[in-house]
Amino acid sequence: xxxxxxxxxxxxxVLGVASALPFVPGMSGRAVADIAxxxxxxxxxxxxxxxxxLDFAFPDVPREDLIALxxxxxxxxxxxxxxxxxxxxxxGDRVVLFDVGSGPNFMPSAGKIxxxxxxxxxxxxxxxxxxxxxxxxxxxxxxxxxxxxxIFPEANYFINQVEWDYWRADDTLAKMPEARKTFVVGxxxxxxxxxxxxxxxxxxxEVLPGIEAIDTAGHTPGHTSFAIHDGSDSVTVIGDxxxxxxISFAHPEWPSGSDQDTEMGIATRTxxxxxxxxxxxxFIGFHxxxxxxxxxxxxxxxxxxxxx
Length: 308
Ligand SMILES: [Zn+2]
Prior knowledge:
The protein is α+β, with helices and mostly antiparallel strands. The protein has one domain (8-17, 29-307): Metallo-beta-lactamase, Chain A. The protein contains 10 helices and 16 strands. The chain has helices at 8-15, 54-57, 63-72, 113-117, 137-140, 161-168, 172-175, 181-194, 247-250, 262-279; strands at 32-37, 40-49, 52-53, 79-80, 83-91, 94-98, 129-131, 156-160, 198-201, 206-208, 211-215, 224-230, 233-239, 282-285, 293-299, 302-307. A 7-stranded mixed beta sheet has the order 1-2-5-6-7-8-9. A 7-stranded mixed beta sheet has the order 10-11-12-13-14-15-16. A hairpin with an 8-residue loop joins strand 11 and strand 12. 47% of the residues are buried. Zinc ion (ZN) binds next to loops.
């Protein structure tokens, strides 16, 4: 592989993450959470959690507003510590993973999926399909182990064509702000490994039977949510369209430092939350608490996440 894999130390240096910030095991909530969808089972498996300084997560929100909101929610105000939930769909003989987590080289508090997937009764070789929401480190770096072998060796892999083309483009590294250049190097490394086995989809496609790709671009150029359908019921995997149960729901209009296109991220988040609130269908957020499964309630111009 031509591109070097970033070490954990390099990742932390680039992110400006203070290594003194503690990781408290169990903080991120449940290791495994389950819901039924007809004959299917939808499970979330914890990949640990991230630790992101407020200035990195929400650099363009007035600090005092952020702190007031976090304090009112009883959360710490030095950093946000979003949990990471990988969704697993069991549908007959199929075991579908939505994203693969961070792997061993992103943050010491993340990359725990293999510790927890076992508790969900799944071995890595049982996974038949992997569908990516986007190519950020905490969603795709868990593709490979320390020997550059696939962690889920039997899986078929699927990604949005736009997302693939964006990260693979020659000028993406040069255009990326300094603090996120390692995201590009890491994505290019993982996508290169997938080159011979990847399948592509576009928004609106049925990626696998009953799994519909939904346009939630903005967080990244090809960011995709997935509606898992069962008759008239559905569960939507929303990836990083809303990354904080407190901030993204109380103030979907606040700019998120992790959205590559800030304005499109806000528009996408607001539209998605509005639709999910109207439909009252269940959804799963990669960084939402209690396994990430819940519903949303509308409250004036704001929304509220209600864990299942
Ligand atoms: Zn992301």
